[in-house]
Amino acid sequence: MEIAGKSAVVTGGASGLGEATARVLAAEGVKVAIFDLNEEAGNAVAAELGGVFCKVDVTNDASVDAGFAKARAAHGQEAILVNCAGTGNAIKTAGRDRKTGDITHFPIEAFDKIVQINLVGTFRCIAKSAAGMLTLEPGENGERGAIVNTASVAAEDGQIGQAAYSASKGGVVGMTLPIARDLSSEGIRINTILPGIFNTPLLKGAPQNVLDALGAQVPFPKRLGDPAEYASLAIEMIRNSYFNGEDVRLDGSIRMAPR
């Protein structure tokens, strides 16, 4: 796909992996709309890129519909969607308090929240964006659009306390191929990136020795991933018209230990 002049929506685009991708897209001549809950950061990034910010809660139908309406009013129908909105938590399925002996379990509402944001929210944006892409005239090879999702290496080797996070990200991986098959006759492609340990706002405030220890776990290169490296792969997935239905780890060959 030739991306210059196209319109794109990047969820979670106000920071981290999403911001890095939005910046690369804009630098390549793409009109970018940022979906995020952080108004201050989102407006700042959008203004810098000459894009548009849409305050969007991916768990809410009306909010997502309003975001797409605003983005399309500004830039026209998007041909590119990059899903980076997501969150996580760390709670054991069941456990015992070492001091009191009290037994607890993972609160179901906390599990559901992660799934609603990471999995259902991602699918909500995919379905609504793909429906819009169907209105586009097909380009070279009949292509109408390209979608990139963000899963995690936790989809395949989740750690202690990551049951909800791993389930949500595993769901993103699991739905990639069937969605690619659903949309193939309409010329819309979809791929998913499984990032390893990246230097994003999720690690903001962590002491340098902790960051160094995390980086040292990576076989090579022995450091945290740079969001620009995620953006590079996302852009390749968008540009390369034979890239479809794939789930690709981007992790320096790390395989996560239980903790």
From TrEMBL:
This is SDR family NAD(P)-dependent oxidoreductase. Belongs to the short-chain dehydrogenases/reductases (SDR) family. Keywords: Oxidoreductase. It holds the Pfam family adh_short. It comes from the Bacteria. Coiled coil: none annotated. The keyword Oxidoreductase applies.
